[in-house]
Amino acid sequence: MQAGTKGGLGAFLYLEVLDASFSFDGVIGAFALTHNLFVIAIGLGIGAMYVRSMTIMLVERGTLAEYRFLEHGAFYAIIALSVIMFVQPLVHIPEVVTGLGGATLIGISLWSSIRWNRHNHEA
């Protein structure tokens, strides 16, 4: 097998595993937002197409390497969504809080990445 073929196959497998992990996390997060299965199915379908195109774009542009804390922020948002999902049967948590909480964690990670990049490029 040639080096170019191995590299292409490796990139393809990486994208597939990344896409599958985002899809699984999307299902968990969807149940944290609503229990309406129709809304979840539509949201996951749209989300899968969006995540797929975003993943390809981020890998091609090297954005995940440029914004070093972005991936961590996404994982923290997933953890927050799963905690909300488990707590929600005991305490009512509005959907707005759930959605804004995840977006806030990702926003903070993006902001932290930008600050880190500015600090390290000046030094």
UniProtKB/TrEMBL annotation:
The record's section on InterPro entries has: DUF475
Keywords from UniProt, A to Z, are: Membrane, Transmembrane, Transmembrane helix
Membrane-spanning intervals of the chain: 27-51, 72-90, 96-114
Q: Which domain of life is it from?
A: Bacteria
Does the keyword Ribonucleoprotein belong to this entry? no
Keyword Membrane attributed: yes
Q: What protein name does the entry list?
A: Integral membrane protein TerC family protein
